UniProtKB/TrEMBL annotation:
Keywords: Cytoplasm, Decarboxylase, Gluconeogenesis, GTP-binding, Kinase, Lyase, Manganese, Metal-binding, Nucleotide-binding, Pyruvate, Transferase
Protein name in the entry: Phosphoenolpyruvate carboxykinase [GTP]
One Gene Ontology biological process: oxaloacetate metabolic process
Catalytic activity, reaction form: oxaloacetate + GTP = phosphoenolpyruvate + GDP + CO2
Gene, per the UniProt record: pckG
Domain of life: Bacteria
Domain Phosphoenolpyruvate carboxykinase C-terminal P-loop: 238-612
Protein species of origin: Treponema ruminis
PROSITE patterns named among the record's database cross-references: PEPCK_GTP
Binding locations of GTP: 265-270, 387, 418, 521-524
Cofactor note: Binds 1 Mn(2+) ion per subunit.
Length: 615
């Protein structure tokens, strides 16, 4: 399609303005057809950027550069007019200054390239909760990924019509091709110090420059569906969250929907598609990364998944850990930074079997495969943040209602993270505000998904609501928004809130794989079952200083290995000393950051926790 075919004057004027600045050789409006996908993929193969995979139908492997393997939080900006509105946890640059800098970079940045206009919808087409965007990009890789991750193409232009709303998203890899230069198989991107992932919250505008990878470049995902959407949600009275959505059916056939916020690479995709190890229970997937939640007419909170695909962490995904993800990514899938086998398949660490012969690693080096499916740190064949981009509809356990325009009613909200000590397997908040408190104190080890600096991985940081790098405004105000949403709602109809931790460690116990005291994955169904019954008000709990916890025997342990049965009491115990340290750290280092923006309800919860622990 050509620009002339766009009837919306606002879109047209904005595209023309960006064309003038970026100076692409061509402008092309994406229709979202299969023919278009195939043509652009061929262009990537011809440019040496993509390798077709003989072993997986219609699937391709891309390799990026070491400076462009994950989100770049240090180069991500919330550019509100006032710094206070970006808050203490976001990088901020004055919008006038940032725009001037970025305009300088955008000037002529698309020389030798095509500017693609991608109309896309976040959420099911026609849903009252969905929102539209237009991404302009000079990356075919981005067009192809957006095609899988969102509902993209002409149908969305038709929905926007001549006067509908859209979020403008401008993206460039920041690598012009001057004087007939070619990519020659090298992933185009800019140096780290020239990367800018910028959100302008007052204008609901996104400008991204210099990276072609994941959330930096697929602007519908973290930039729009979280950073801009958190701002829209606050304005309009709903919730935009970094949460998976799952459907849980108990042996009696009763259904509940659960969301869960865990930081990047902390188990959302795995939990969303787990295969329960307890008989009679069923888990189906609605979404694996982002939830948009609004109150329905019946007063309950309803969630939609704004995405249409999974951008999942490849390493660690095996037939044992997440068979449903493997099947989702068995065809029509884009792989990024995985290793390539001699017979034309992808491979990654902990895929469940060793590779044979030679492998091409994510840096493009050919090396002999190791006899195990693990590699020494820093020498991995697949980058630790290697990803698959797969259509959600290919997931064997996708719930039939996953595209229901009204969303699904949520009974429980989980918070979690990687905490090697202190935080028990599961505890429930006493009420909504106590749940907001639990969300506000989430901490987790840093993972390879959130930094390109490997030396940061494993350090613990607070990641409130798992949304630290994705909140488009002051985090203190975000806490207040959660308190306000709860205060307005019918208390009986609000979801119950839980804090889970699959990642407690005991490095001295040689029996435990990876040192983890809980098997995780499919065995997390044991915890989901307890949560399900809690939502029904079952008497399966004890009241503890930190909240409600499973009473003895309330977690089903049938079939669990003996060494996990032995560690269970330790991870279902209240570590009073550890929690008192936690209280001190929150009081001295975490909460003071938010100053007057911190809701008094949360300080009250902290005081209450300390008092209960000290009794
Ligand atoms: P993003 O897509 O970055 O937001 O990550 P995510 O939250 O979807 O995490 P994902 O499910 O992809 O898991 C990330 C890593 O954690 C993988 O290497 C998994 O194997 C591992 N993991 C997931 N669930 C568990 C669990 O229950 N226990 C343990 N020990 N590891 C897990
Ligand atoms: C995350 O880091 O949380 C991801 C990957 O899901 S990205 O889309 O790159 O943000
Ligand atoms: Mn994920």
């Amino acid at each position: 399609m050509t620009l002339d075919e766009i009837k919306n004057p606002k879109i047209k004027a904005w595209v023309e303005e960006c064309v003038k600045m970026c100076e692409p050789d061509n402008v092309y409006v994406c229709d979202g057809s299969t023919e278009e996908y195939d043509r652009l993929m061929k262009k990537c193969v011809d440019a040496g950027l993509a390798t077709p995979l003989a072993k997986k139908p219609n699937s391709f492997l891309f390799r990026s550069l070491p400076s462009d393997v994950a989100r770049v939080e240090g180069r991500t900006f919330i550019s509100s007019v006032k710094q206070e509105d970006a808050g203490p946890t976001n990088n901020w640059i004055d919008p006038v200054e940032l725009k001037a800098t970025m305009k300088g970079l955008y000037k002529g940045c698309m020389h030798g390239r095509t500017m693609y206009v991608i109309p896309f919808c976040m959420g099911p087409l026609g849903s009252p909760i969905s929102k539209n965007g237009i991404e302009l990009t000079d990356s075919e890789y981005v067009v192809l990924n957006m095609d899988i991750m969102t509902r993209a193409g002409k149908k969305v232009l038709d929905i926007i019509g001549t006067d509908g709303e859209f979020v403008p998203c401008l993206h460039s890899v920041g690598k012009p091709l001057n004087n007939g230069e070619k990519d020659n198989g090298i992933w185009p991107c800019a140096d780290v110090e020239h990367k800018y992932i910028s959100q302008f919250p007052e204008e609901h505008l996104i400008w991204s420059y210099g990276s072609g990878y994941g959330g930096n470049a697929l602007l519908g995902k973290k930039c729009f569906a979280l950073r801009i959407a958190t701002v829209l949600a606050r304005e309009e009275g709903w919730l935009a969250e970094h949460m998976l959505i799952l459907k849980l059916t108990n042996p009696e056939g009763k259904v509940k929907y659960v969301t869960g916020a865990f930081p990047s690479a902390c188990g959302k995709t795995n939990l969303a598609m787990l295969i329960p190890t307890i008989p009679g229970w069923k888990v189906e997937t609605i979404g694996d990364d982002i939830a948009w939640m609004k109150f329905g007419k019946d007063g309950r909170l309803y969630a939609i998944n704004p995405e249409a695909g999974f951008f999942g962490v490849a390493p660690g995904t095996s037939a044992e850990s997440n068979k449903n993800a493997l099947i989702s990514a068995s065809k029509n899938t884009i792989f990024t930074n995985c290793a390539l086998t001699e017979d034309g398949d992808v491979w990654w660490e902990q895929i469940g079997y060793p590779a044979k012969g030679k492998l091409v690693d994510w840096k493009g080096q050919t090396r002999d495969a190791l006899p195990k499916d693990k590699s020494p740190k820093g020498e991995e064949f697949a980058h630790p943040n290697a990803r698959f981009t797969a259509p959600a509809k290919q997931c064997p356990c996708i719930a039939p209602e996953w595209e229901n325009p009204e969303g699904v009613p949520i009974s429980a909200i989980l918070f979690g993270g990687r905490r090697p000590s202190t935080v028990p397997l599961v505890h429930q908040s006493r009420n909504w505000n106590h749940g907001v408190f639990l969300g506000s104190i989430v901490g987790s080890e840093i993972t390879a998904a959130s930094t390109i600096d490997a030396s940061q991985v494993g350090k613990i940081r607070r990641d409130p609501f798992a949304i630290l790098p994705f909140c488009g405004y002051n985090m203190g105000d975000y806490f207040q928004h959660w308190v306000d949403v709860g205060a307005k709602a019918d208390q009986d109809k609000l979801p119950k809130i839980f804090y889970v931790n699959w990642f407690r460690k005991d490095e001295n116990n040689a029996d435990l794989p990876g040192g983890f005291m809980w098997p995780g994955y499919g065995d997390n169904s044991r915890v989901l079952a307890w949560i399900f019954d809690r939502c029904d008000g079952k008497d399966n709990y004890v009241d503890t200083p930190i909240g409600f916890m499973p009473k003895e025997g309330a977690i089903n342990t049938d079939g669990l290995a003996d060494y996990y049965k032995k560690t269970l009491p330790q991870i279902l115990n209240v570590d009073k000393e550890g929690w008192l340290k936690e209280v001190k750290d929150i009081r001295e280092n975490h909460y003071p950051k938010f100053g007057k923006h911190l809701p008094k309800e949360l300080t009250a919860c902290l005081d209450d926790l300390e008092a209960r622990l000290s009794k």
